[in-house]
Amino acid sequence: MNNSSWQQRKNDAFARGMGNIFPIFVQRALNAEIWDVEGKRYIDFAGGIAVVNTGHSHPDVVKAVRQQLDAFSHTCILVTPYTNAVELAEKLAVVVPIDDAKALFVSTGAEAVENAVKIARVATGRPGIVAFNGGFHGRTNLCMALTGKVVPYKKGFGPFTPQIYHAPFPAEYLGITTGDSLAALEQLFSSEIEPDRVAAMIIEPVQGEGGFYPVPKGFMAELRAVCDQHEILLIVDEIQTGFARTGRMFAMDYEGIEADIMTLAKGIAGGFALAAVVGKKAVMDAPDPGGLGGTYAGSPLACAAGLAVLEVIEKEALCERAIEIGERVKASLAKLQLEYPDHIGDIRGKGAMVAMELVKNDDVTQPDPELTKALVGKAADSGLILLSCGVRSNVIRILTPLTIPMDQLEEGLNTLTKSFKACA
Ligand SMILES: Cc1ncc(COP(=O)(O)O)c(C=O)c1O
Predict the structure, then answer these.
(1) What's the 411 CA to ligand 1 centre distance in angstroms?
(2) The CATH classification of domain 3-54+317-423, taken from the options 3.40.50.720, 2.60.120.10, 1.10.3720.10, 3.90.1150.10
(3) Centre of ligand 1 from the C-alpha of residue 240, in Å
(4) Residue 275 pairs with which residues in a beta bridge?
(5) Ligand 1 within 6 A of 137 CB?
(6) 238 in contact with ligand 1, CB cutoff 6 A
(7) Which one of 51, 204, 240 would you pick to mutate in the ligand 1 pocket, going by the greatest count of ligand atoms within 8 A of its CB?
């Protein structure tokens, strides 16, 4: 059966809301390559949306999971816990840039965000949460409320949980400065909610789905100061930026300040369903026993994968590789920008989290979602899996596995360039 017959079967069997970008049904994937049911090969510049930082089916991850599978696959951590979850929590507490941290495991990024908010509310006794426009935090009700993009994430799904407020995210390319964002927060505190009713602020250090906008230098420190002034907790959502993606273990490693809580998922376990909340001990211990968790929280298979992922990141120096990959990708895109300055408005990113923003007439106010969509389609036809993002759907984002061989990176960049030229 070919891709289109499988797509037809999927359309008949799946709710329409669970769409897929490509009508490409995967048969096999290894490191940075994917093969579909028709035997066609693709270079993967999506990495399962920043999940397989260590590549598809990294042999060390596969081995660790197989060993765990031979021992047991589930007992429920809330009933009879197991040692690899404890080991992983200990290791995460050491690698996150938070002093004196402890962890909590769940299964998905959205759950991690939900739990971070639950913990912050209990720890502070306050209800309010401030999030940022363009942010994406997941698809559950609370996460939808936090998310700052209506279509497709929020449209028609309300009413949303109350006591959530939004401030502008400082996206330099869009002309929103640190000063604008901080002034808007002050305005929020005077017109919407008094700061001593705010439990936490939540922010991505590089907005992911929102368009790959990194916070400007110094913004996190300013935000930390506002939080400290009002005894508000700072939650940093590193679900997309974590685990070597940005060239450091976490994007917060660049900032020189500490979050109170960090949410982690995606790259944490190389493709196994695992997410974590990590934060200051006093904050994390606020909720009573039984208030946090879930049947599949901290699955032993996923924890085995998580421990292997941490070792692979260190052994294969994936932070350094992320920098190397990012520089090569940026150089290739910059060359394209020289030829097409009207179409490519901006190239940006941290480490191997790189984006180019497509516009018309080199005008930031004229996004080009049509060109973006055409490029993604053309690249897929030519054997390259490429993702878009952005509130205006006009950003191409590159999230290769950090283990991608250099010749495959070049091959993918060539395909990207040729596809762009065919569409522009
Ligand atoms: C920054 C961020 N937060 C939260 C989420 C939600 O994670 P999940 O899809 O695992 O629920 C995502 C997913 O893309 C994300 O990028």
Answers:
(1) 29
(2) 3.90.1150.10
(3) 7
(4) 106
(5) yes
(6) no
(7) 240
Q: 114 phi and psi, to 5 degrees?
A: -55, -45
pLDDT score of 151: 87
The answer to whether domain 3-54+317-423 and domain 59-315 are alike in fold is no
Candidate of 153, 239, 277, 391 to mutate for ligand 1, largest count of ligand atoms within 8 Å of Cβ: 239
Bridge pairing between strands 233-237 and 198-203: parallel
Interval between CA 203 and ligand 1 midpoint (Å): 12
Question: Closest Cα to residue 268, out of 299, 315, 295, 302?
Answer: 302
pLDDT digit string, tens, across residues 329-352 = 999 999 999 999 999 999 999 999
pLDDT tens profile 84-100: 999 999 999 999 999 99
210 lines ligand 1 (CB under 6 A): no
- Rounded to the nearest 10°, the torsion over CA 361, 362, 363, 366 is 60
59-315: CATH topology is Aspartate Aminotransferase; domain 2 (3.40.640)
Atom of ligand 1 lying closest to residue 110 CA: 11
**Which structure tokens are listed for 26?**
């995967």
- C-alpha separations of 185 from 134, 167, 171, 179, 195 in Å: 15, 6, 15, 10, 10
Sequence ranges of the domains in the chain: 3-54+317-423, 59-315
Q: What is the pLDDT of residue 402?
A: 98
Q: Which residues of the chain have pLDDT under 50?
A: none
